[in-house]
Specification:
The protein has nine helices and two strands, in the order αβαααβααααα. The chain is mainly alpha-helical. It has two domains: about 100 residues, no CATH class; about 80 residues, no CATH class. The protein is rod-shaped and about 85 Å long. Bound molecules: heme C. Heme C (HEC) binds next to helix 2 and helix 3. Heme C binds next to helix 2 and helix 3.
Length: about 220
């Protein structure tokens, strides 16, 4: 990576504040999950609900997305379906084919979740203050105290990496931009002629001229 001047450095540092990390949860392959869940609703909800709690199981508290979280109940369900034990005799019955397809759908869903642990949904988020400072250190070799430049990150349940707390509000963007303006002049001071990286040396030479660094208005 070769940077061409102060403007690019400012853009880079301000941009770090809004870098995003993302991950997607994927659904297991096979039978259509919603038509399988319909079978549960049709043949099982009558007794396994929050009023009747037959066998201490209420399927109406669960959903097709939370199957891996209730693995024990669903493993028993697979056995009951395969053995033709549920629904009990006398209740409306799915066809044998439907019951076996449902059992195999549940097994596949449970197996897939073991291979790939269920991690829930992870929304896009920006870097937190600590990650921001680490990124500046790793890219430029400059140690900063992020508390001097950016507001406190909202800590959720003891985690400072929870996307719900790491939103990019207009106020945050303003602070990211002004922190970039304050940090850039420090690069010149931190870098020495012996700096090994040519990129850092070049950046250092460019931002060492304070009048240019301060008057830069890239946004
Ligand atoms: C007519 C009411 C009724 C219907 C409909 C019914 N069940 Fe049940 N189920 C029960 C009762 C009562 C028990 C507890 C006694 C037993 O285990 O046989 C039970 C127990 C269970 C258990 C065992 C719970 C445990 O941990 O011991 C599972 C799993 C289960 N049912 C799954 C199903 C599924 C899946 C369906 C639909 C395909 C279904 N049931 C439909 C009445 C019902």
């Amino acid at each position: 990576m070769r940077l061409n001047g102060t403007r690019q450095i400012l853009t880079l540092i301000a941009g770090l504040g809004t870098c995003f990390a993302a991950s997607a949860a994927s659904a297991p392959k096979g039978a259509d999950p919603h038509s399988q869940w319909k079978l549960i609703e049709t043949y099982c909800f009558d007794c396994h609900n929050t009023e009747d709690w037959a066998g201490s199981v209420a399927f109406d508290t669960m959903s097709v997305d939370t199957i891996p979280e209730e693995a024990k109940v669903w493993e028993t369900t697979v056995k009951k379906l395969k053995g033709g034990l549920m629904p009990p005799a006398g209740s409306a019955q799915p066809s044998r084919e439907e019951a076996l397809q449902l059992a195999s759908f549940l097994e596949t869903t449970l197996d897939t979740s073991l291979e790939k642990p269920y991690v829930g949904h992870i929304p896009l988020r920006r870097l937190n203050r600590r990650e921001y400072a680490n990124a500046i250190r790793d890219l430029i070799g400059l140690e900063i105290n992020p508390a001097t430049y950016l507001p406190d990150d909202e800590v959720k349940d003891g985690f400072d990496t929870d996307a719900a707390g790491l939103r990019v509000t207009p106020t945050f963007l303003d602070q990211a931009v002004s922190s970039a303006r304050e940090i850039v002049p420090l690069i010149g001071r931190a870098c020495t002629a012996e700096t090994e990286s040519p990129t850092v040396r070049e950046m250092s030479a460019r931002v060492a001229r304070p009048s240019r660094a301060i008057s830069a208005r890239p946004f």
